[in-house]
Design a protein that fits this description.
- The protein is mainly α and 123 residues long.
- The protein folds into 2 domains: 61 residues, Orthogonal Bundle (Arc Repressor Mutant, subunit A), CATH 1.10.10.10; 35 residues.
- Strands 1-2 form a two-stranded antiparallel sheet.
- A hairpin with a 2-residue loop joins β1 and β2.
- α2 packs across α3.
- One of its GO terms (biological process) is negative regulation of DNA-templated transcription.
């Protein structure tokens, strides 16, 4: 199945569903920060996520309990690949240097990354 890109609002709701693993609209709403969106807004976005293949549901009468159909890891892989291909010519080196230039990586993180690279080399 082809994964589609999520809007910011859709991704926010998916983050909650990944954390909850399953829940009704009211359960999702409880996890959202203030000011909370309207119930109908959350319900509509969850139905859009269902149409996109991200979410499934179990019916309990007229109520639906929703659950993720795509794991957070699957979407993370998709989003990372899209970022790498779209902005960094599929180069980890280009992406790493971008974050270093923007001061998004400190020395401790750079050191940890170097240790990971050494570990991978030695496998």
């Amino acid at each position: 199945m082809e994964i589609k890109e999520l809007t910011r609002a859709e991704e926010q709701l998916m983050q909650v569903l990944w954390q909850l693993q399953k829940g009704f609209v009211k359960d999702v709403m409880e996890q959202l920060p203030e000011p909370k969106p309207a119930y109908n807004t959350v319900s509509t976005i969850i139905r859009i996520l269902e149409t996109k293949g991200f979410v499934g549901h179990t019916a309990f009468g007229k109520s639906h309990e929703y659950h993720p159909l795509i794991s957070k890891e699957e979407y993370q892989n998709f989003a990372t690949d899209k970022l790498m291909n779209g902005y960094f010519d599929n180069s980890v080196k280009h992406m790493f240097s971008y974050f270093v230039k923007k001061e998004k990586i400190d020395l401790k993180e750079a050191d940890e990354i170097m240790k990971l690279i050494e570990k991978l080399k030695n496998q």
